[in-house]
Amino acid sequence: KLLRLLESSEISPVGAARTEQVDVRIVCATHANLEDLVEAKRFRADLYSRIRGYVVSLPPLRERKADMARLVNALLARLGRAETETSIAFMIALRRYDWPFNVREPFAVLRRATALAAPGEKLETSHLPPELLEPSKTAPRAAPVAPARAARATP
Predict the structure, then answer these.
(1) Could you give the CA distance from residue 141 to residue 105 in angstroms, rounded to a whole number?
(2) Helix (H) or strand (E) holding 10
(3) Residue 107 CA: distances (Å) to CA of 13, 14, 77, 83
(4) pLDDT tens across 20-48, in order?
């Protein structure tokens, strides 16, 4: 029925005798490579051909940590707490964490932090869940970091 909707722009409401014209746009998001899934016959090629209009690839949040301050401001505004300030240590902890669940996770963390903070109180690391402060849990998907090379002294 979804394929028919996308092809003909018509739907059949439950119990109705006639179809109705609709004008819809579909926005899809996935972390999977749909082309590979189509090739492996694990995703319908006809559906893929209809939903593949304009593709935007976004790197995961763990690769865009420079965006964290803007993201925090936007999420605080969404929570109705745009005036809430954050400490430097709070922001450092957020930038160190790799956010395996992308934007849903910092939104939940900020919702928790603002609930724990008194009105007007600056957000501190004490408002963060323990897993964001434990080094062993801050890099669930991080690639190993190569050791820094020693600088050569020139005579």
Answers:
(1) 14
(2) strand 10-11
(3) 36, 37, 11, 16
(4) 999 988 888 888 999 999 999 999 999 99
Q: Give yes or no for residue 54 having a pLDDT over 60.
A: yes
Query: CA–CA separation, 94 vs 64, rounded Å?
Result: 12
pLDDT value at position 152?
38
Neighbouring C-alpha atoms within 13 Å toward the C-beta of 33: 4
User: What are the residues facing 126 on neighbouring strands?
Assistant: none
* Count of all residues that appear for the chain in the document: 155
pLDDT attached to residue 95: 95
Which residues are CB-contacts of 103 (< 8 A; sequence separation ≥ 6)? 61, 71, 75
Q: Which residue would you say has higher pLDDT here, 116 or 147?
A: 116
Tokens of 17: 């005798």
Query: Scanning the structure block, which residue is given the tokens 């050569």?
Result: 152
Token pair recorded at residue 52: 């593949």
Largest Cα–Cα separation, the chain = 90
pTM for this structure? 0.65
| H helix intervals, 25-130 | 34-39, 45-51, 68-78, 88-96, 104-116
Of the candidates 140, 131, 152, the one whose C-alpha atom is nearest the C-alpha of residue 100 is 140
Do 107 and 67 contact (CB within 8 A), yes or no?
no
More confident: 151 or 38:
38
